[in-house]
Automatic annotation (TrEMBL):
Catalytic activity, EC: 1.13.11.-
Compartments reported by the entry: Cytoplasm; Plastid, Chloroplast
The protein's name in its UniProt record: Lipoxygenase
Domain of life the protein comes from: Eukaryota
PLAT domain residues: 88-224
Organism: Manihot esculenta
Chief place of localization: cytoplasm
Gene Ontology biological-process entries: anther dehiscence; fatty acid biosynthetic process; lipid oxidation; oxylipin biosynthetic process; pollen development; response to wounding
Domain (Lipoxygenase) ranges: 227-922
Length: 922
């Protein structure tokens, strides 16, 4: 209770027995009777109140209660015959922009002037109680924000305004505030704190843009931080709760304005641009033909060429997402800086390609090193006079003159400790369990592995792998013994790539195999690759479409082996980006987020739990549709599958994705990387004990699950409450039936029938949004920024002994290897993008952190539980640090070995290869 009192502001009212009783009523009253208060709140005239704003636990001002007034009201026999009107003070925190353009500055000055003549920001308090005479919620008299014009030139990030309400003493407890913005310009409303009620300060965490009433006439509704299940909503708030949800729920009609707050669903029909030519047309993703999750609807007009394709908004014009989902200023600044950097990095090689009419290959590995040492300008040979003659914005020229570092890439971590680590087999294998894509490796149960594809279309299902390929690498064991002792593992990309290979290999400068890689678990606990199978579609009966490459025995086989590993890494990079990263975290979470805003009120406890895990996801997904996954966008340009990238993603959604297998324990068991073991702390036994992603991930999964369970049990003491929660059931039903409509009939969807179901579903969503995304995202530049380590694109197949290219390969194998990698233009463009995607912004919120940590909920018990969760994250971070120093854990510690920090909870800004943000925010 001490922490609860400190947080909720009760320490100031402990001086009187009445105030203490009121405090106990507020905090100890059963959740299921929250809308009934045993004691009427006492309203205190401002002239009798002492305001103390110095308390550390609450950022806003705190109300004190007049002792004289309390004594006067503490006599049980004293019943006021008539309601008395009092003044109540509100402190309103508005967040300023750091930088404004000329238009915004003019609007700001005009609003300051207009405020003086009555075009104000108007607020109205709404009680949790209903007026028995009118049968409508009790309302205060309207109040306006004071000193707007006086504070219009304040440069602080946050500006505090006040307002005074006239409230009757029988008003009850304030549950909502309406806000009307009669200015010309929107403003960001962070919090409102009310002072003057006996229950202590009442907090309203708003965190929303309030639009001008000329653009959006309806009043904005903000609720206090008290959570309520729908059935327990106080009478005075029921109508407002329903209205607020109706206001932001789209109906599938109309084109959205950037200032709208409308959440609705649509298919991915805006990736192509058929008006610019058939080469830029792309199939619609979502629907019976190509199943896919739904995205946020924008309602733009269709293209001229294809009525079923939505017209595009090309950068730098913004894409619509609901106004509150857009990046805040510091995030936008970081992303814009990264985008500028990307433009510079892709612009310069483009210019060079134009000037020389060549698309440069890397001629030697030293060419790649130059990108980190001397910068791109030096590499491509653009002289100062050429640079200055180019029609570039002044900002770009200034950057060139003032900071050439922007044109130079940071050295990726993978070569910072050991420049040649990427060449070693043990490092190639280590990255399968502790690199940027540690989620595809599986335990091999049957040898040789077998395809599940239709043999009539894709040829024999049997693998070309034979016992003789691997028997010499099993430390004296037979293949059967190795299987029985769980010593063999596989990364299998055969079935996901093979259906697309004919089309991919017909593209200019794109060549791929469908790969399988077999690994052996050594007595040291490390993995070693022992065979790579490379498959192509059969061209006819008896054609040799499969090839097995084994570890080298001489110089020639060494280069063949390096090329085979490069093809494996290219397969891995594609599946990582298109399936594990984009599909499984970004795209598949979007329907749950849209449905949450549409079906869960802001006062719903589950919305309050999920809120930080939904931040920025709709915006980053919209930006991806605009620049990354669109036709001829970064992904198509930089990855081997080219224009078929998103179709591969859709095939994975249809054939492999299952929500019930997205939680970490279920995924590890599905892949055979763990078996249930109740004697273990997390209920699992890992088959590779030193599996850094799984080891650290299980710590975070368990912490999330415990936090979610304590949270859910607080509001749902029995399962009937889950079944009867209309908003909760509508959220889950819409997430599945609308957001994932193409898979809604799948039998594997979890039910939402009891408390256990709810804990499991919420834990999975939070895991995907936080730790799973972090593990897959923030290592992209540290591991992929050195292109030979993880080439996203391969341009040449491995030469056959009787082929035309074999002689040139033998004559200069390094040149052949480098010519198979992405070109200079492709590589630098890719590096610039993954550099941006791997960057933490300064306003990042990490797991265990929240905006307004002490007041996001009015439930003091939950606030205490959240601080315990935060403390657990700090303990996990210390344990991860300890593991990374343990020399017995060779997959994360050793000479030149990168520590595994992708699941370390905290990080500083920038590219750090660590840190777990709450949400999919980049």
């Amino acid at each position: 209770m001490s922490l609860a009192k400190e947080i909720m502001g009760s320490s100031l009212i402990d001086k009187s027995s009445f105030a203490s009783m009121s405090s106990k009523v507020l905090f100890n009253h059963s959740f299921h009777q929250k809308n009934q208060f045993l004691v009427k709140p006492v309203l205190v005239p401002l002239q009798h109140r002492r305001i103390n704003v110095q308390r550390a636990a609450v950022r806003g001002p705190v109300a004190a209660i007049s002792e004289d007034l309390i004594r006067a009201n503490s006599n049980k026999d004293t019943v006021p015959e008539k309601a008395v009107t009092f003044k109540v003070r509100a402190v309103v925190t508005v967040r300023n922009k750091n930088k404004e353009d000329l238009k915004e500055t003019i609007a700001k000055h005009w609003d300051a002037f207009a405020d003086k003549i009555g075009r104000n920001v108007v607020l109205e308090l709404i009680s949790t109680e209903v007026d028995p005479k009118t049968n409508t919620p009790k309302r205060s008299k309207k109040a306006v924000l004071k000193d707007w014009s006086k504070k219009s030139n304040v440069k602080a990030e946050k500006v505090h305004y006040t307002a005074e309400f006239q409230v009757d003493s029988n008003f009850g407890v304030p549950g909502a505030i309406t806000v009307s913005n009669k200015h010309q310009k929107e403003f960001f409303l962070e919090t409102i704190t009310l002072e003057g009620f006996a229950c202590g300060p009442v907090h309203f965490p708003c965190n929303s843009w309030v639009q001008s009433s000329k653009d959006h006439p309806a009043k904005r509704i903000f609720f206090s931080n008290e959570p309520y299940l729908p059935s327990e909503t106080p009478a005075g708030l029921r109508v407002l709760r329903e209205k607020e949800l109706r206001d932001i729920r789209g109906d599938g009609k109309g084109e959205r304005k950037l200032s709208d707050r409308i959440y609705d669903f649509d298919v991915y029909n805006d990736l192509g641009n058929p008006d610019k030519g058939v080469a830029l047309a792309r199939p619609k993703l979502g629907g019976e033909n190509i199943p896919y999750p739904r995205r946020c609807r924008t309602g733009r007009r269709p293209t001229d060429t294809d009525i079923n394709a939505e017209g595009r908004v090309e950068k730098p014009l913004p894409m619509y997402v609901p106004r509150d989902e857009q990046f805040e200023e510091s995030k936008q600044k970081t992303f814009s800086a990264g985008r500028l950097k990307a433009v510079l990095h892709s612009l310069i090689p483009s210019l060079k390609a134009t000037i020389s009419a060549e698309n440069h290959d890397f001629n030697a590995f030293s060419d790649i090193d130059i990108l980190y040492k001397e910068g791109l300008l030096l590499k491509v040979g653009l002289q100062d006079e050429i640079w200055r003659s180019l029609p570039l914005p002044k900002a770009v020229t200034k950057i060139q003159e003032s900071s050439e570092g922007l044109l130079r890439y940071d050295t990726p971590k993978i070569i910072s400790k050991d420049k040649f680590a990427w060449l070693r087999d043990d490092e190639f294998a280590r990255q399968a369990i502790s690199g940027v894509n540690p989620v595809n490796i599986e335990s091999l149960k049957v040898f040789p592995p077998k395809s599940n594809l239709d043999p009539e279309i894709y040829g024999p299902q049997e693998s070309a792998l034979k016992e003789e390929h691997i028997i010499g690498h099993l430390n004296g064991m037979s293949v059967q013994e190795a299987l029985e002792e769980n010593k063999l593992f596989v990364v299998d990309y055969h079935d996901i790539y093979l259906p697309f290979l004919d089309r991919i290999n017909a593209l200019d400068g794109r060549k791929a195999y469908a790969t399988r890689t077999i690994f052996f678990l050594t007595p040291l606990g490390t993995l070693k690759p022992i065979a790579i199978e490379l498959s192509l579609p059969p061209v006819g009966p008896g054609s040799q479409s499969k090839r097995v490459v084994t570890p080298p025995v001489d110089a020639t086989s060494n280069w063949i082996w390096q090329l085979a590993k490069a093809h494996v890494c290219s397969n891995d990079a594609g599946v990582h980006q298109l399936v594990n990263h984009w599909l499984r975290t970004h795209a598949c979470l979007e329907p749950f987020i849209l449905a949450a805003h549409r079906q869960l009120s802001a006062v719903h406890p589950i919305f309050k739990l999920l809120d930080p895990h939904m931040r920025y996801t709709l915006e980053i997904n919209a930006l991806a549709r605009q620049s990354l996954i669109n036709a001829d966008g970064v992904i198509e340009s930089c990855f081997t599958p080219g224009r078929y990238c998103m179709e591969i993603s859709a095939a994975a959604y249809k054939n492999f994705w299952r929500f019930d297998m997205e939680g970490l324990p279920a995924d590890l068991i599905r892949r055979g990387m763990a078996v249930p073991d109740p004697t273990q702390p997390h209920g699992l036994k890992l088959l590779i004990e030193d599996y850094p992603y799984a080891q650290d991930g299980l710590l975070i999964w368990s912490a999330i699950e415990n936090w979610v369970r304590s949270y859910v049990n607080r509001y749902y003491p029995n399962s009937s409450l889950v079944c009867n929660d209309t908003e909760l059931q509508a959220w889950y039903a819409e997430s599945v039936n609308v957001g994932h409509a193409d898979l809604k009939h799948a039998e594997w969807w979890p039910t939402l029938a009891n408390v256990h179901d709810l804990v499991s579903i919420l834990t999975t969503i939070i895991w995907l949004a936080s730790a799973q995304h972090a593990a897959l995202n923030f290592g992209q530049y540290p591991y992929g920024g050195y292109v030979p380590n993880r080439p996203p694109l391969i341009r040449r197949l491995i030469p056959e002994e009787n082929g035309t290219e074999y002689a040139s390969f033998l004559a200069d194998p390094q040149k052949y290897f480098l010519s198979a990698l992405p070109s200079l233009l492709q590589a630098t463009k890719f590096m610039a993008v993954v550099d941006t995607l791997s960057t933490h912004s300064p306003d990042e919120e990490y797991i265990g952190e929240r905006q307004q940590p002490s007041i996001w909920s009015g439930d003091a018990e939950i606030i205490d539980s959240f601080y315990e969760f935060s403390a657990e994250m700090r303990r996990i971070e210390k344990e991860i640090d300890r593991r990374n120093m343990d020399p017995s854990l060779r997959n994360r510690c050793g000479a030149g070995v990168l520590p595994y920090e992708l699941l370390a909870p905290s990080s500083s800004p920038g590219v750090t290869c660590r840190g777990v943000p709450n949400s999919v925010s980049i």
